[in-house]
């Protein structure tokens, strides 16, 4: 197990550390301060994520071949998602992000949420919404799911129960974010992402959930800020009700879908 977890995990972390270190050196050499460093964090994160994906996909393919050869998994491909199911997973990701954020908000005195929000505001300040969605809503989720679900979760699942593998991969995912607020938020979502990967039988389920969560977290504040202040509370309540319905309906749908797969 560790022959796969160690190299892919270490490569992912090293690429992030080297990228940030290189950015720090550039800032120092050119006389830029902390503000410039923070302004380039998203770009550097995206670039290192792209660079990380190539070897991690190779690790995944190699590991998959070994698991098939040992008879751990079948040779036939996993269940494909229909377009409507893909859209539903994106919406489910949005609902999961919303309610996970609400849980974190309830723990704000313990997690120091305000400090985290201030740091994120400095990092995202001045960035176009398109740029944020591309790097944080598409590239980062894909790279992180390849590492934490496709590699770490699936390998752990070969040696432990599904729930145990989901929890451990979720903890790794939370620790990777390196701050307490994100650790709790990401740890919860990481567990749920692994669960949906398991019940759908599709690798892309966790990717779409993750993308939906990140993109929605970027879009929601923009949507609310553009609304008249008098309508903001009503709109927010309406959004939460819709997302709660999506969460219930979507979860029920994929559970029933999993039951049908087991019966076939």
TrEMBL record:
- One BP annotation, GO: proteolysis
Annotated signal sequence is none
- CAAX prenyl protease 2/Lysostaphin resistance protein A-like domain spans which residues? 129-215
Q: Which organism is it from?
A: Blautia caecimuris
Q: Which molecular function term from Gene Ontology is one that the record holds?
A: peptidase activity
Which InterPro entries does the entry link to? CAAX_protease, Rce1/LyrA-like_dom
Q: Which Pfam families match?
A: Rce1-like
UniProt entry keywords in alphabetical sequence: Hydrolase, Membrane, Protease, Transmembrane, Transmembrane helix
The protein's name is Membrane protease YdiL (CAAX protease family)
- Transmembrane stretches in the record are 12-31, 37-60, 87-108, 128-152, 184-211, 232-254
């Amino acid at each position: 197990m560790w022959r796969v977890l160690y190299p892919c995990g270490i490569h992912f972390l090293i690429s992030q550390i080297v990228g940030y270190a290189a950015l720090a050196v550039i800032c120092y050499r050119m006389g830029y301060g902390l503000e410039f460093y923070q302004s380039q964090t998203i770009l550097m994160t995206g670039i290192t994520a792209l660079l990380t994906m190539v070897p991690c996909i190779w690790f995944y393919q190699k590991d998959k071949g070994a698991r098939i050869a040992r008879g751990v998994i079948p040779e036939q491909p996993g269940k494909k998602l229909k377009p409507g199911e893909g859209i539903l997973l994106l919406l489910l990701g949005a609902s999961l992000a919303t309610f996970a954020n609400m849980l974190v908000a309830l723990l704000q005195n313990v997690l120091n949420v305000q400090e985290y929000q201030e740091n994120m505001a400095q990092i995202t300040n001045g960035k176009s919404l398109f740029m944020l969605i591309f790097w944080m809503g598409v590239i980062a989720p894909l790279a992180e799911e390849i590492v934490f679900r496709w590699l770490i979760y699936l390998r752990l699942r070969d040696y432990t129960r599904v729930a145990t593998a989901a929890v451990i991969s979720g903890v790794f995912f939370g620790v990777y974010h390196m701050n307490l607020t994100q650790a709790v938020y990401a740890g919860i979502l990481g567990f749920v992402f692994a669960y949906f990967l398991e019940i759908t039988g599709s690798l892309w389920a966790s990717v779409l959930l993750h993308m939906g969560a990140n993109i929605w977290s970027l879009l929601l504040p923009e949507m609310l800020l553009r609304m008249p202040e008098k309508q903001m509370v009503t709109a927010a309540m309406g959004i939460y009700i819709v997302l709660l319905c999506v969460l219930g309906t979507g979860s029920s749908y994929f559970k029933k879908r999993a039951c049908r797969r087991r019966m076939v």
